[in-house]
Design brief:
Blueprint lengths: L6 E6 L3 E6 L3 E7 L2 E4 L4 E5 L1 H6 L7 E4 L2 E2 L2 E2 L2 H16 L7 E6 L5 H13 L4 E6 H8 L10 E6 L4 E7 L2 E8 L3 H16 L1 E2 L2 H10 L8 E8 L5 E7 H24 L3 H9 L2 E4 L8 H9 L3 E3 L6 H8 L2 H29 L1
Parallel strand pairs: 1-9, 9-10, 11-17, 17-18
Antiparallel strand pairs: 1-2, 2-3, 4-5, 4-6, 7-8, 11-12, 12-13, 14-15, 15-16
């Protein structure tokens, strides 16, 4: 029987929110930012429109990032943002949708309940959760049902999830508060210290992205505000310098991977060595990350195809599980009803 209720997958990230609607694919990809007038508490913009206001607004307008380290940091703002994105994705649906939301592997029970509560208040009928490394593996094309070890490193905006997956389960996992936003901060701080130039978060992210498209002997033009006189200025930064300034953060991820491998069962370690470590998430393209992992771990590393969309694509594919869950729920309900009816018949005898 066709499913009447809409099934929606959501990657509720620190930096970006992506929405996948069953049978439609990805319908929304916007920054997880809202702009609020602090005097009236009125929401002025959400997503892409709100990000344009970051660093360009008067004192009474505040840009809020309601997600931090992959979990909810500002509950009311997350609820409003989620409601806005839901309405934008599926318009005004008469029947409330079922949601499948991915969360970091280290999320506590309190953090999980916060996501469930926020989605319910935003208009969901029922909400299910899936851990990000599992969703990333599915999106990267890994057959998670096989009893064979795969090491997934999902690098988002606020967190890096490292997990060994086998037989459809996460065997070992570790979540680090080091990811894309940390690399942006490293770049911003380095430019301020070395060149006396102030740049914003958006500009730092732009530098990181552009660094992937230039050669080792080339430089990037960066413009901002000079500290000494407050006037606009621009500098040229060599690619090697960009790699050097983010290396400390990259090495924190390398150390996290080492710790996961140290407690991985030998059989699964052997599988991982014979295969490749898989990088997913927008941070997978970070300059020097892949080379650094291969150098320190002596294991081949590959960046998944369309790495930045692996989590949402995997969560979208997992929407098919909702039908099985609902079928099990309905079958259980029918069985319970039959037991009650049989009991009533015996009582009447």
């Amino acid at each position: 029987m066709a499913r009447l209720r809409r099934s929606v997958a959501i990657d509720l990230g620190t930096a970006e929110v992506l929405v996948y609607v069953n049978n439609k694919g990805i319908v929304l990809d916007e920054p997880s930012v809202i702009a609020v007038d602090v005097l009236t508490n009125e929401i002025l913009a959400v997503g892409s429109e709100a990000k344009k206001l970051v660093g360009r607004t008067p004192g009474n307008i505040k840009a809020i990032k309601p997600m931090k380290d992959g979990v909810i940091a500002d509950f009311p703002s997350t609820e409003k943002m989620l409601k806005y994105f839901l309405e934008k994705s599926i318009k005004k649906a008469i029947i409330k949708p079922d949601l499948l939301i991915c969360i970091p592997s280290r999320a506590t029970q309190v953090e999980r309940r916060a996501v469930l509560q926020a989605s319910e208040n935003a208009g969901a009928h029922r909400t299910y959760l899936i851990e990000e490394p599992l969703a990333a593996a599915i999106g990267a094309g890994v057959d998670i049902t096989k009893a064979s070890g795969d090491l997934i490193i999902d690098i988002g905006g606020g967190t890096t999830d490292i997990a060994v997956i086998s037989a459809g389960q996460i065997i070992i996992s570790k979540s680090l508060p080091v990811a894309g936003l940390n690399f942006d901060k490293d770049i911003k701080d380095n430019i301020r210290r070395r060149y006396g130039l102030l740049i914003g978060d958006n500009k730092a992210e732009e530098v990181k992205i552009k660094a992937n498209s230039i050669k080792d002997n080339e430089s990037l033009e960066v413009s901002g505000r000079q500290i000494t006189d407050g006037l606009p200025n621009k500098v040229y930064i060599p690619l090697g310098e960009i790699k050097d300034c983010i290396r400390a953060s990259v090495d924190l991820i390398v150390d996290g991977v080492k710790k996961v491998l140290e407690v991985t069962p030998p059989e699964l370690s052997s599988d991982i060595y014979d295969k490749e470590i898989i990088l997913t998430g927008g941070g997978a393209y970070t300059p020097t990350l892949k080379d650094r992992l291969e150098e320190k771990l002596q294991i081949k590393v590959k960046i998944a195809e369309d790495a930045s969309k692996c989590v949402i694509n995997g969560t979208g594919r997992a929407l098919g599980w909702l039908d099985e869950i609902d079928k099990g729920y309905n079958d259980s309900k029918k069985l319970k009803q039959k037991e009650l009816e049989d009991s009533e018949k015996l009582r009447r005898r």
